[in-house]
Design goal:
A: mainly beta, six-stranded mixed β-sheet, five-stranded antiparallel β-sheet, 11 strands, globular, B: mainly beta
Chain lengths: 116, 114
């Protein structure tokens, strides 16, 4: 079984400040991990994904995430927040098992607010 | 560059009515799926398909039917709508059913059951 926990349903940062969104996962097999962003009234857009290559993954819009197996974490960071980063962010896990169809399990989401 | 297209975008149903949410993708993707999004619960998988003629249940399949007669289309049917099915529904697709592939989402269908 797999699960995702996102700590903090709402995070508020000032423009230019560090963004840190937390994600911890649980998986019985090696995981694939994803971060998606959702802007109001829109679908989900992939920010980045970890697929067992480099543990530090760089994504779009300046975001990156580091896979830490010992901590079962995949936190999302961005050095300097921009107003356009305000959105809801979802962490998701899928089990890395050959021949298994993808079944994403999502966290409950973190809404990022960026203030002036 | 349509990607994953869902219709309708908004729908209000009365309890007991039936309807179909349409989903089409033009990327020749093998894998398609339906999720529902509820406040505070993230997205949950309803049904998925790994190819034409092949479907399977996800985490919350009750009250929903699917079929996959073509590669492009994956409609979601509500046979007898209930207020608990009020939600935002997302169709998604991926080149391959394998877990590491990027899944692309449609823009969502907002359904209210009264």
């Amino acid at each position: 079984a797999q699960s995702v926990t996102q700590l903090g349903s709402h995070v508020s940062v000032s423009e230019g400040a560090l963004v840190l969104l937390r994600c911890n996962y649980s998986s019985s097999v090696p995981p694939y991990l994803f971060w998606y962003v959702q802007y109001p009234n829109q679908g989900l857009q992939l920010l980045l994904k970890y697929t067992s290559a480099a543990t530090l993954v760089k994504g779009i819009n300046g975001f990156e995430a580091e896979f830490k197996k010992s901590e079962t974490s995949f936190h999302l960071t961005k050095p300097s927040a921009h107003m356009s980063d305000a959105a809801e962010y979802f962490c998701a896990v899928s089990e890395n098992e050959a021949g298994t169809a993808s079944k994403l399990t999502f966290g409950t989401g973190t809404r990022l607010q960026v203030t002036l | 560059n349509a990607g994953v297209t869902q219709t309708p975008k908004f729908q209000v149903l009365k309890t007991g009515q039936s309807m179909t949410l349409q989903c089409a993708q033009d990327m020749n993707h093998e894998y398609m799926s339906w999720y529902r999004q509820d406040p505070g619960m993230g997205l949950r998988l309803i049904h998925y398909s790994v190819g034409a003629g092949i479907t399977d249940q996800g985490e919350v399949p009750n009250g929903y039917n699917v079929s996959r007669s073509t590669t492009e289309d994956f409609p979601l049917r509500l046979l007898s709508a209930a207020p608990s099915q009020t939600s935002v529904y997302f169709c998604a697709s991926s080149y391959s059913f394998s877990s590491g592939n990027t899944i692309y989402f449609g823009e969502g269908s907002w359904l209210t059951v009264v």
